[in-house]
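Researcher: Going back to the complex we discussed earlier. I've cleaned up the inputs and rechecked each line, so this should be the final set. Can you rerun the prediction on the complete assembly and write out the structure?
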Amino acid sequence: MTSLPAGPHPVPVDVTLVPELNGLFAPTSTEHDLGDLEVVGELPAELDGVYLRNGPNPRFGPLGSYSYPLDGDGMVHAVRLGGGRAQYANRFVETPALRAEERAGHALWSGLMTMYMPDATEVSPELAGTRKDLPDINVVRHAGRTLALAESGTPFVLSDDLSTIGRETFGGSLPAGITAHPKIDPRTGEMLVFCYGFREPFLTWSVVGPDGAVRRTPTPVAGVERPTMIHDMAITDRFVVLIVAPYYFDIGAAMSGGSLLSWRPDEGTRIALIPRDGSGPRWFTTETFWCWHLANAYDDEDGSVVVDHVAYDAPDTQDGTEHEGDDPPRLARLRLDPRTGAVRTDRSSEWRVEFPRIDDRVLGRRHDRIATVAARTEGADWADTLVVTDPGSGREAHWSAPELAIGEPVFLGDPTDPDPDHGWWGSLAVDRTADLSWFLLLPAADPAGGPVARIRIPVRVPLGLHGAWLPTGP
Ligand SMILES: [Fe+2]
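Model: Rerun complete. Updated structure for the full complex:
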């Protein structure tokens, strides 16, 4: 992310007033290595690999402001499976700023919205006046590198034992960083990314080849004239798909004490289909909606592009406080026709959901199921239900566990079998009744039947964001 002007020196945040710093969210400063975890049920023998999940976990009490989910240090949690056994470990993502704060014994940088950066009286000359890296959103593996990802910032490479190797700029080709939600094409092995910025060009896209070298350097997306918040993307065989809602960065307002982000619902939401061959984007405009996460997109046989996503009336609902008249976030399907410019939107489910995921082995191609999590209990602070929806047929299954806070589902495929019924939905869940967590494995063929295995993690893993299953082997 490009740098912002510095604000005044901030005061500590009263953490008792921030829900996302308490309860199931409360950060931990302990790094564990726990072997031979208890398994209730039976671990599928086919599964050999590691599940990784990232999430905001501030090492020290925040200064000035704390904006969930962007602020906070990254902490990556790992559940290793193999040989019928399970292990757990967690590590901070050790950025230069976090190391400086560890040396100081307290926070030196403010939260994102406060815009304070320490000067050379507080930190080394190389760090003075820089923004803090925030690789706390997601984690992926590409070209043999495990990347802890920030929101439009440079990723950090992690070793197999989760120690931080260092900043990844892709040979200097992507110095401004990438989205926290890159998409890895299982057909080509390419990693497609975008990056927004506060200065022109406000939005670019790039391609990293399967060898880890940049194939397409940052390419401006024509038609984006303002700094705009965009969190996720999708790909198809033909297109990069970006949903561009009217949610703008307003640095002038932030500098005078207002909000850094401005929602303009009267402007409509636009969707860009950017041909992967490098030709100019095709824009579509719909009624205004906000989207944090896309599930997947694909090119349909009739020439249209299908985009499954979670649609909000406005971005404010991300914190669970729905505004009067706002619908809750729901799974929706856009059908875009590049020949006619026509757009159709259909609601795919009545569940209020987030964290949509598919079997990543068909990413960019037709999928027949999307897993999400939903809060079934009225007023719940987090999801207690896993929902699997087929937007094509309307088929839906769910499994609820009121005693658990269930995190993003990730598909663990049987490496010997591409059949999507022969896999498992894995999810890291926090126990609401005890100071411990569970890694759940629900069979893809019958998620409503509940987990076939529950791995007991004898510590509380703070609620977090996104993750990935990384099978062992080529
Ligand atoms: Fe996200």
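Model: Worth noting: The first helix runs from residue 96 to 104.
Researcher: Good, that matches what I expected from the previous run.
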